[in-house]
Amino acid sequence: MSSQPILCDATLTVTNRYATLCFERDDVRNALTGTSLIDDLCSTLEWANRNKDISCLIITGAGSAFSSGGNIKEMRDKVGMFGGSPSEISDSYKNGIQRISRAMHSAEIVTIAAVNGAAVGAGFDLCCMADIRIGCEKTRFGETFINLGIIPGDGGAWFLQRLIGYQRAAELTFSGRIIESAEALSLGLLLECVPKETLLAVAERYAKEYASKPPQALRATKRLLKLAQRQELGDFLEVCADVQSQCHQTEDHQRALKAFLDKTPAQFEGN
């Protein structure tokens, strides 16, 4: 396993084949801007992609919030990524918050957001970029950009409508309203809503389940799920046939077949 990335505002723990990244900036409600959390998250995703011993990443926050998104005071003061000319601000978005969008979308491992509290603005969009979202009674979501006279500059409109459809995404984006965990569950934004004290344990249960699968096949399945969103069926079937032919040649495939036929647990090695 390659050495873990050096993080400033988050902690990373590794258990077997999954890792947990926890935002540790409760003093600013885990704001993504004005902290090192963008760098920490992107570095962790790059590390996980390279590290074939990792199959799943849980993302959560310490304290009362998952993430408040952009730092409102920095917006007011026009500092940091919010300062400068329009072209400079545009570059700051591309080289700042949009790095998260690209990194999450290109993640080869399964990503799980364990939403411990409020996730608004870019914090909400980050949740929408994850493969799986588990919430609790403290979970709050809000696509709140319109309330500040701005748009989802991190590409949130692209992700949200793919999760819940155009009409529901439009309503949340146009209104900028905060929704509670029960509504988030009914909209399909959350897979489960559990008591906060069990949130991480439930997320870990999912992570352990996914991490127990053949690693190469799991990553290939994730890539195909993403590819299916933008490719025509005929082209997609061609890719599936090619990927499947490679899966049939792996030793883990043979291990899985033997375990199934022998009715014994399988142990996979990623080859």
From TrEMBL:
Gene3D superfamilies: 2-enoyl-CoA Hydratase, Chain A, domain 1, Lyase 2-enoyl-coa Hydratase, Chain A, domain 2. The keyword Lyase applies. This is Enoyl-CoA hydratase. It comes from the Bacteria. GO terms for molecular function: lyase activity. One of its GO terms (biological process) is fatty acid beta-oxidation. Keywords: Lyase. It comes from Zhongshania marina. Belongs to the enoyl-CoA hydratase/isomerase family. InterPro entries: ClpP/crotonase-like_dom_sf, Enoyl-CoA_hydra/iso, Enoyl-CoA_hydra_C.
